[in-house]
Amino acid sequence: MDIVFATRNKGKLKEVKKIFSGINVKINSLNDYDKKIDVIEDGKSFEENALKKADGIYQLLKLPVISDDSGLEVEQLNGAPGIYSARYSGENATDKKNNEKLIEELMQFPIPHLAKFVCVAVYNDGINRLIIQGEFKGQIISKPRGKNGFGYDPLFLPDGLDKTSAEIDSGLKNKISHRAKAFSKLKEMLLENKLI
């Protein structure tokens, strides 16, 4: 069975393929399709954006779709960067620029900088729609550490660990991250409901 993962992000795709390995499902990304596919993520929450992607891509391809929207919420910044995590530093945002902006914004606050990654995962096959949320709690440190992962991983120190998300190996990350939790639960629900 083919499922379209509504992303072009190779890091995300790799993580989700790993989660769905071992069952008879092929996860394709938007890069595997010719169509000029673009969904404008202008929702006001992770859930709205994830639903927009799943519904929009399903309408275009008429194939089962999984999608997600995720980001970092920092307590002292009232939940920012939140849904703007990927473009936090502006239009030409890069992971490096986003991380620099986050460190700068947090300088005015005392440590610890409590934070959590949030991921809302959605499945849509035109009949069934499932919505799952996963969270990954920790704190933001002031100097990036580690080369694994992407986004804010080098600044994120998960609760109970002395290594950042970018220092832990992908095996562990695929068990404890927000995306791992959301997509593992989604996979469980799909299997329980015999949708895959």
Show the helix and strand layout.
Blueprint: E1 2-5, H1 10-19, E2 26-29, H2 46-61, E3 65-74, H3 95-106, E4 113-124, E5 129-140, E6 156-158, H4 170-176, H5 178-192
Helix pairs in contact: 1-5, 4-5
Characterize the structure shown.
This protein is of the alpha/beta class. The chain is about 30% helix and about 25% strand. The chain has a single domain, classed as Maf protein (Alpha-Beta Complex), CATH 3.90.950. It has five helices and six strands, in the order βαβαβαβββαα. It has a six-stranded mixed beta sheet, with helices on both faces. Strand 1 (about 1-5), helix 1 and strand 2 form a beta-alpha-beta unit. Helix 1 crosses helix 5 (about 180-190) and helix 4 packs across helix 5 (about 180-190). The N and C termini lie close together (about 5 Å). The model has no long low-confidence stretch (mean pLDDT about 95).
**CATH architectural label:** Alpha-Beta Complex
What is the strand arrangement across the widest sheet?
Answer: 2-1-3-4-5-6
Sheet bearing the most strands, described? Answer: 6 strands, mixed
CATH class reads Alpha Beta
Indicate the structural class.
alpha/beta
How many beta-strand segments? 6
Helix amount, in percent? 25-40%
What shape does the CA trace take? globular
Give Rg in angstroms.
17 Å
List the main descriptive attributes of the protein structure presented here:
single chain; 196 residues; alpha/beta; Maf protein; 6-stranded mixed β-sheet; 5 helices; 6 strands; 31% helix; globular
In short:
The protein is of the alpha/beta class and 196 residues long. The chain is built from five helices and six strands, in the order βαβαβαβββαα.
